[in-house]
């Protein structure tokens, strides 16, 4: 048990260091990957916390992590769209969004949401150690395994639902995948599972991008030249995602 708690504390400290580095990179506007790295690190934190719900400090930290996710999602979506437009011969539409992003980066870094997350995160290892001393972490490994197993069962049910919702499937797949990555020592899944999850997430991601961009095009006129391409791509992405999901189901849920 002590070794598992030690690894938990080490992961939390590593996440804190990465978030501070992302914050500095956003402030300085030094690279285009800073925002995505921030979001990926926050997702790692949320995956780490999900099986710990009910322990002191977890709910507050989850709330702050969720706030940062909500704050940054529309900006990351805009960033991805700008990169697509630049690559597909729409430089003016891309430039307008890239200009907005350049102004947003330092504002996001200095936001109250990021500051609050870092403040609570800094104190969290002390909460973990206090919980350990009080015996609240007894049986932690079993608790985490139970949570990871429940996430797999939820995904299994969703995959075998003929009327499955691709949006919900995408969320469930991300939760399962990041849960495995957060607690690899507790993984009891078939060997190909992680690669199948990554493929399914990527396939659904392509579909989701097109779906989202088509919705934006209804409000943002400079996206109209891309609509026909996105409509065609979305149909192909749906078929590809369904094939990948079928392979995931047959490999991991026999």
Strands, helices and their partners?
Blueprint: H1 2-28, H2 34-49, H3 58-87, H4 91-109, H5 112-133, H6 140-159, H7 166-182, H8 193-217, H9 227-252
Helix pairs in contact: 1-2, 1-4, 1-5, 2-3, 2-7, 3-4, 3-5, 6-7, 7-8, 8-9
How would you characterize this protein structure?
This protein is mainly α. The longest helix is centred in the N-terminal third of the chain and has 30 residues, at 58-87. The chain contains 9 helices and no strands. The protein folds into 2 domains: 1-138, Four Helix Bundle (Hemerythrin (Met), subunit A) (Up-down Bundle); 140-254, de novo design (two linked rop proteins). The two termini are 32 Å apart. Helix 2 (34-49) crosses helix 7 (166-182) and helix 8 (193-217) runs antiparallel to helix 9 (227-252).
Annotation keywords:
254 residues, Four Helix Bundle (Hemerythrin (Met), subunit A), 80% helix
**Total count of domains:** 2
**End-to-end C-alpha gap:** 32 Å
In total, how many beta strands?
Answer: 0
Order of helices and strands: HHHHHHHHH
**Uncertain stretches:** none
**How large is the share of residues in beta strands?**
under 5%
